Amino acid sequence: QLACPLDLGCHSVSFDMAAAISKKRKFVTDGIFYAELNEFLRRELAEDGYAGVEVRVTPQRTEIVIRATRTQSVLGERGRRIKELTAVVQKRFNFKEGAVELYAERVASRGLSAMVQAESLKFKLLSGLAVRKACYGILRLPRHTGSR
Predict the structure, then answer these.
(1) Label partner for 54 (CA 20 to 30 A): which of 12, 74, 93, 99?
(2) For residue 116, which of 44, 55, 68, 64 has the smallest C-alpha distance?
């Protein structure tokens, strides 16, 4: 396991070592962090229309914006699920208490999000819907949302 990227508030390496890290290594660790985070959220939020994640680093904390079609189920009852996800991300990537904040953002048009469409097709096929009917349903949605 690799440590979390240094500029994201982690404490696996001291600040003196952080100045000595090469740009190549920093890009690699940032990429690994993003890939692991994306994979975790994709598995955890598949039923909620997970469409991607955006990581914003600020001096005080790291903001992680989760894009999904059903943000209410991402947030959970009284924000319980988003707090649980925050705790898991904080523990897995060695963030300090309060150094990471998760937000949920609704996808504007789910018909234009390839990731959402792929997950939708997966669940239609797993539920036993005929392949042709499932695929036509997936292809019809972007046309009805205005894309040409």
Answers:
(1) 12
(2) 68
Largest CA-CA distance found in the chain, in angstroms, rounded? 59
Show the tokens assigned to 18.
């952080």
| The one-letter amino acid at 70 | R
Sign of CA dihedral 57, 5, 10, 85: positive
Distances (CA, A) of 82 to 22, 53, 66, 67, 76: 34, 14, 10, 13, 7
Q: If you count DSSP H runs as helices and E runs as strands, how many of each does the chain have, helices first? A: 6, 3
End-to-end CA distance of the chain: 44
Residue 31 token pair: 């990429």
pTM for the full model? 0.70
For the stretch 118-143, pLDDT in tens is 888 888 888 898 989 888 888 887 66
- Helix (H/G/I), strand (E/B), else coil: 67: strand
State the pLDDT confidence band at 51, using cuts at 50, 70 and 90: confident
